[in-house]
Amino acid sequence: MSEYAFHRDVKVMQHHFKDNSDAHTAQKIASALWKSYEKFFYGNGKQVHFKKYGELNSLEGKSNKSGIRIINDMLVWKGLKIPIDNDYDNDYETQAMEHDICYSRIVRRAHKCKYKFYVQIVFIGQPPIKYNQSTGEVRHPSGTGKVGLDIGPSTIAIVSHQDVKLLELADRVHDIEKQKQLLLRKMDRSRRAANIDNYNKDGTIKKSKKWVRSNHYNKALARLNELYNKQARIRKEQHEILANYIISLGDEIYVETMNFAGLAKKGKLETNADGHYKRRKRFGKSIGNRAPAMIIDIINRKLSYYNCSINKINTIKARASQFNHIDGTYIKKSLSQRCAKAGNEDIQRDIYSAFLIMNINNDLSTFNIEACNAEFEHFCKLHDIEIERLKHCYNLKSIGI
What we know:
Transposase, globular, five-stranded mixed sheet, 18% strand, single chain
């Protein structure tokens, strides 16, 4: 069993739909399916999740020579010829279109209970540099120096020689959560009203039953999909902006190796002394909404344009959240303890961890005490400025201010 075996198997099914699909597009779908099976057989995957009807929102080719391709500002595919709406006044877009095209992707997005279709073009090489049209300066320049990041399920602490920040990740996505909750309740009421025989007396669902979807349910589902898409776009946009800011502080970026997938999982089933089950909830919802792992991937992608990459320290050996550089001791703290003591200074826990991570040695396992001592006074001044700013803002409980 291999990826090419999947390509061979999908060939028969593609021939049945040959008037509407080409071989390269079918092979790309098979490759995506193979990635899931590869995780299931050889990785940490436990189950293969198939896409339901209506959930396939993108199709892509393998090259610009056949299948989905761009020719003379036209999307050409299986007899379709659709003009592309180019913005020729946009210098960045004009420069990008001068590069050779690797392949193209058709994307469907929900918008006001309808679908809109877009084409995404993947080019060969590095993206053009963005300039400020009014001043001519580079919009997102890369800085020089070290930057330490401490990324949690919902916040990120950033420390460099120029600045100290403690920010909430993707803070604008939380505004959509209330709308999603109301829609999900509405859909549940509609589903129960249209499928009375599919529920037991205690309200639980009967297995192996067919479901009827009312028109009101379908409209609510379309609205829910639109909210999910909107939330994903806002999250990615905010992460891209944050990544540009972090790279502007320095080109040596250090971060802890984190298993966010493990943090998202529920805890083991355990009971208290009185026989009641312990709470199993962890950080699944927060990680799903904030996507902390995505910000690392985006920073890595942007650093690759400068032939750099993010440096991941050894979390187990370094223990940044426990270390005190003043006396060299390790003290384990509870999650509720949001302040660390370093000498006579009270430092916000996440910011102090980011400061230590910034001053890691080349072995990525131990801290440079001399660098910590040399930078500490300047760091404390920047820390106090940031804490004063946070006092006048709405903050999450995890920030501890």
